[in-house]
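Retry 2 of 3 after timeout on previous attempt. Resubmitting structure tokens to design endpoint.
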């Protein structure tokens, strides 16, 4: 092969390589690099805060923002990845108990790229939401002066509590209610309030020092209900 022929084939190889690189640059993001999404923690109580950490997204200045969805519902919008394609955002797990898919998507879906152009990438992660602490009232509707049995469940895990105070509205009605090792509690409250809707609640403090209010609504009917002498004592609770 002559020197001129050798130079010709080297030029062809160089041009082919450049075309290949240009083609890769214009591929959808999902074809260039695999994006990832991590949730911290990936198991939470309902209404808890979750940190979403993404990597492998487009971090160029002209790239579209990332949208975070919880089971298809948008929870965070306009997330701009850094130059390294990473981001970190927080959202609240506003859903009931169960397993959910959290997605982080950027750009235009592949089925519409042919029409409007653009790029698309997506990463998903699974989030487990557990049943958080709650109060159960028996009964939920009473007359003024009647007793209400209050049962608490789920008072364990991240909550650094052994004893709680029970409030009716803003007034403490039962002080130092003991929380059992299984995360349950029981108490009795006399509905000595005016007719209307009232909130029975306790305040918990997590291990991280965050305050969480847990409560249930109590309906107090108009007028005092006549009661037999045997009904004057609070309902007994088996321990």
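Retry 2 succeeded. Sequence:
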């Amino acid at each position: 092969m002559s020197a001129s022929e050798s130079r010709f084939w080297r030029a062809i190889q160089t041009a082919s390589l450049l075309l290949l690189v240009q083609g890769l640059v214009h591929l959808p993001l999902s074809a260039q690099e695999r994006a990832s999404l991590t949730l911290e923690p990936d198991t939470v109580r309902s209404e808890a805060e979750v940190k979403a950490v993404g990597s492998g997204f487009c971090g160029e200045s002209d790239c579209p923002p990332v949208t975070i969805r919880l089971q298809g519902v948008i929870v965070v919008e306009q997330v701009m990845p850094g130059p390294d394609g990473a981001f970190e955002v927080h959202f609240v797990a506003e859903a009931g108990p169960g397993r959910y898919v959290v997605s982080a998507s950027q750009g235009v879906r592949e089925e519409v790229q042919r029409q409007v152009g653009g790029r698309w990438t997506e990463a998903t992660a699974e989030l487990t939401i557990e049943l958080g602490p709650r109060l159960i009232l028996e009964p939920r509707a009473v007359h003024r002066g009647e007793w209400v049995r209050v049962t608490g469940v789920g008072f364990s895990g991240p909550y650094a509590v052994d004893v709680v105070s029970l409030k009716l509205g803003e007034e403490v009605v039962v002080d130092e209610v003991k929380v059992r090792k299984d995360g349950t509690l029981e108490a009795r409250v006399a509905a000595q309030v005016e007719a209307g809707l009232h909130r029975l609640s306790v305040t918990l403090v997590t291990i991280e020092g965050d305050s969480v209010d847990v409560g249930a609504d109590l309906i107090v009917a108009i007028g005092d209900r006549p009661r037999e002498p045997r009904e004057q004592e609070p309902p007994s609770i088996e321990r």
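Attempt log closed. Residues 134-231 form a domain with the Immunoglobulin-like fold (CATH 2.60.40.10).
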